[in-house]
Design a protein that fits this description.
Structural class: alpha+beta
Order of helices and strands: EHHHHHEEHEEEEEHEEEEHHHHH
Helix content: 40-55%
Strand content: 15-25%
Shape: globular
Distance between the termini: 33 Å
Oligomer: single chain
Number of helices: 12
Radius of gyration: 22 Å
Number of strands: 12
Largest sheet: 6 strands, mixed
């Protein structure tokens, strides 16, 4: 009896239009000039740090990117690839209804196509193949290429060279008024948490139950792995994998409820003085209860996958380790 209302918006897109987020000159120089044997420090340290001036062609490209995303990609992702309903798609703004089981998959698809990353999917007789800011849409009438937002995106560098987007999701019981859901998704989840508290390039979920206190969470699209050689991982890919395991009963549906009951052991009401001390400590060191929560989660996970085959259990545990990393990173970000 619950549904998800998704609101997605490009991050500081007005600054892209104004040229404040234009590519740095060193990003468009030949690699040999910046890093190779022919490296010239005068260029790298001088001209290389400047922003490339935007001309008429750049503005036309930005307009084309947003038009293509809204007209050719979003409706296909929401209504054809997934069982959602598109409410609005204009430029970098998207509002859509989606059933809960499709939520993580849809969010991931919208983000990937917004940024023109590697993508190969077919649905409804339409095949979309994307990469490096270009997408090819194949239909019965033939193929046609479109321009999407793109940029070097290794997700391991500190500086990301392309546009990003943030999303807010309101998980609402059908008895709640629709305007209430709109405010939650647009203002509280997307703008309040994903953009302001998490610093953009993130998503946030706000669950409003028919009765009881609301539950809020959010995190970056990509989470840095503790294994530095592995770079970062896509948290929505991890969450969507868990949706599949729950659907196939590889994980018992009782796991979230059992874990929620145990969370109360690790969290308690604090006075303002205690909360201030706690936040200072969290900035400086890893709280003791994170290890306790992880151990308890893994123990419960083992219990609730006891009837699953051993290969699947190993795969679930590997993804669970990443999920724990993401939760710890999310807590660090909002402190």
């Amino acid at each position: 009896r619950y549904y998800a209302l998704v609101a997605m918006d490009g991050d500081k897109f007005s600054e892209w239009v104004a040229g404040k987020r234009a590519p740095r000159m060193k990003w468009i120089f030949h690699p040999d000039l910046v890093e190779g044997e022919g490296k010239d420090p005068r260029i790298v340290e001088g001209v290389g740090s400047r922003l490339r001036p935007l001309g008429g062609g750049s503005h036309l490209a930005l307009s084309a990117v947003m038009k293509n995303y809204a007209l050719h990609v979003v409706r296909w992702a929401v209504e054809v690839q997934h069982a959602g309903k598109l409410i609005y798609a204009g430029g970098d703004d998207v509002i859509a209804f989606v059933p809960l089981r499709d939520l993580f998959s849809l969010l991931r698809t919208l983000r990937i196509l917004f940024q023109g990353e590697s993508f190969h999917e077919s649905a409804g007789g339409i095949h979309i193949e994307a990469g490096k800011g270009i997408a090819t849409i194949e239909e019965e009438e033939g193929k046609h290429p479109i321009l999407l937002a793109g940029g070097k995106n290794p997700r391991s560098d500190q500086v990301f060279q392309g546009p990003t987007a943030s999303a807010g999701v309101a998980l609402i019981h059908e008895s709640h008024p629709l305007p209430y859901a709109m405010v939650e998704a647009l203002h509280h989840a997307m703008k309040g948490r994903a953009k302001d508290r998490l610093g953009r390039d993130a998503f946030a979920l706000h669950l409003h139950r028919r009765s009881g206190e609301p539950v809020e969470c959010g995190m970056k699209w990509f989470v840095p792995s503790r294994d530095e050689s592995a770079g970062s991982f896509d948290i929505l890919e991890e969450l969507d994998a868990f949706v599949g395991w729950f659907d196939r009963d590889d994980i018992s549906s009782r796991l979230p409820y059992d874990m929620a009951r145990r969370i109360e052991i690790f969290h308690c009401e604090r006075s303002e003085e205690e909360l201030a001390w706690y936040l200072d400590a969290l900035r400086e060191a890893r709280p003791w209860y994170l290890d306790a929560q992880k151990e308890e989660f893994m123990r419960l996970l083992g219990r609730h996958t006891a009837e699953t085959d051993e290969d699947t259990r190993r795969e679930i545990r590997k993804h669970a380790e990443r999920l724990v990393e993401a939760v710890e990173e999310a807590e660090r970000l909002v402190v």
